[in-house]
Amino acid sequence: MDPKNPPISNFIRAIVADDVESGRTQQVATRFPPEPNGYLHIGHAKSICLNFEVADEFKGRTNLRFDDTNPVKEDTEYVESIQEDVRWLGFEWEELRFASDYFEEFYERALLLIRKGLAYVDDSTPEEMRELRGTLTQPGRNSPYRDRSVEENLDLFGRMRAGEFPNGARVLRAKIDMSSPNITMRDPVLYRISHAHHHRTGDAWCIYPMYDFAHPLSDAIEGITHSICTLEFEDHRPLYDWAIEQCEMESRPRQYEFGRLNLTNTVMSKRKLKQLVDEGIVDGWDDPRMPTISALRRKGFTPEAIRTFCREIGVARAYSIVDEQMLEHFIREDLKLKAPRTMAVVRPLKVVITNYPEGQVEWLEAENNNENEEMGTRQIPFSREIYIEQDDFMENPPAKYFRLFPGNEVRLKHAYFIKCEEVVKDEAGEVVELRCTYDPETKSGTGFTGRKVKGTLHWVEASHAVSAEFRHFEPLITSEAEEGDKTFLECINPDSLQVLGGFVEPGMKEAAAGDKFQFFRHGYYSVDPKLTTSERPVFNRVVSLKSSFNPAQA
């Protein structure tokens, strides 16, 4: 374990610790079992951290296992992206496994259930099965095919595997209890027919196991000791145990459930996220407005911030929603001593310093991070023409406005005091340029104390400025998605992306994809790896500088 981040106690860790201390578990073995039908999101990050960190703390092992039992929705693109995400978060698996590695053994265990009279082939239609299943208050009724003989079931199941029947014609069901108060135990489906090409096994199979059958058997085959999953699988635990017991598996893993991660103003359903991608509402799975791990990486989040967030929010048994500002808090904390601090103007307004010598360029020294002296200093140019923010000037300001206005004096960060003398407007009456004067005695770092000013502005020198694009993000889903009968697509925020064009310091020309900076007064930014070109960098705002959020009160 990382000595800087000692383990935080939770009920899962307590269970594992007790099992190890009592000798019930000799070597802890966990697994992260994603379905390769989409990209991982921040909720998966919580599960990844929990599984890998618990095993690591107790000197155990963790497998990455793909639950590739539904070829209709799966793709190698998702397999590759999931591996990339897990590694980027800082974890390495003991073994890379696939449920499809065990298809033959799953089939043999299903035959065992049939021979024991615990599974049968059902010809009922999906509608008939739903009708017979019952409700939460009414028990189910037996299928008319439930009492087929062992011989007939073996014959039909073998013919299902041989591809004699079309999709949906038959299923293999467990024979448990149609009157069970737990609907999951009412003769659940174990196998269905699907004539679909599998990304690993090709066309070798046309029947595929259901998750509730493949998952416990996979855990048992791999010798998993603690099968950690989210709370929605709590009702499936009796079936998990039943499958391991009745299939006579040598290893007996145990399942434990925890509350999944939910963030405000965010959808976590892979089906909904895929819909956003497929309908072009976002620019792919890694669009920085998405909650996917690849999107957070592209936006500029660090794996350290995500791991810390996942540890600090805790592991509980109950469903809860975490304020998205808590995630933002941890990336601020992670970047504040790491990110160089520089200046960028996102809505430029030209300033001409009329008493500064024409053609002269002066190089000034600026610290890279005033909270981390080890990051050193840089040289920035200063000349007669600079850019400031449009928001830093008002022609008719209100009281206690300390930035630039006619007749007022402000400090340029790392440079001089300037005073606004004249305002230049275009034909439409819009301010397009300011004419100012500077006081050469007020240079930063010289110890000038002749007078004080209350406003300090950031700026970029015009002749060396690098043209840049800035992308600012707001939540993709409005809070209304949690209220009333609106669908999540009706709650898409039309202002979730704002694209601005401005300038950065000349040193930014060398910035590489993924490099992170704090732009004075604007926030933390990261170089976009997809949109940046050699001519023009594109910066994604990771997070603003400040928030009213208090993690101690969360």
UniProtKB/TrEMBL annotation:
Keywords: Aminoacyl-tRNA synthetase, ATP-binding, Cytoplasm, Ligase, Nucleotide-binding, Protein biosynthesis. GO terms for biological process: glutaminyl-tRNA aminoacylation; glutamyl-tRNA aminoacylation. It comes from the Bacteria. Residues 339-439 form the Glutamyl/glutaminyl-tRNA synthetase class Ib anti-codon binding domain. CDD domains: GlnRS_core (cd00807). Residues 456-528 form the tRNA synthetases class I (E and Q) anti-codon binding domain. InterPro entries: Gln-tRNA-synth, Gln/Glu-tRNA_Ligase, Gln_tRNA_ligase_bac, Glu/Gln-tRNA-synth, Glu/Gln-tRNA-synth_Ib_cat-dom, Glu/Gln-tRNA-synth_Ib_codon-bd, Glu_tRNA_lig_a-bdl, Rbsml_bL25/Gln-tRNA_synth_N. ATP binds at residues 35-37, 41-47, 230, 260-261, 268-270. A motif ('HIGH' region) lies at residues 34-44. SUPFAM superfamilies: Nucleotidylyl transferase, Ribosomal protein L25-like. The keyword Protein biosynthesis applies. It catalyses: tRNA(Gln) + L-glutamine + ATP = L-glutaminyl-tRNA(Gln) + AMP + diphosphate. One of its GO terms (cellular component) is cytosol. The keyword Magnesium does not apply. Pfam families: tRNA-synt_1c, tRNA-synt_1c_C, tRNA-synt_1c_C2. Gene3D superfamilies: Glutamyl-trna Synthetase, Domain 2, Glutamyl-tRNA Synthetase, Domain 3, HUPs, Ribosomal Protein L25, Chain P. It is an enzyme of class 6 (ligase). A motif ('KMSKS' region) lies at residues 267-271. L-glutamine binds at residues 67, 211. Coiled coil: none annotated. Its EC number is 6.1.1.18. Residues 27-336 form the Glutamyl/glutaminyl-tRNA synthetase class Ib catalytic domain. Belongs to the class-I aminoacyl-tRNA synthetase family. Monomer. NCBIfam families: glnS, PRK14703.1. This is Glutamine--tRNA ligase. The lineage of its organism: Bacteria, Bacillati, Bacillota, Bacilli, Bacillales.
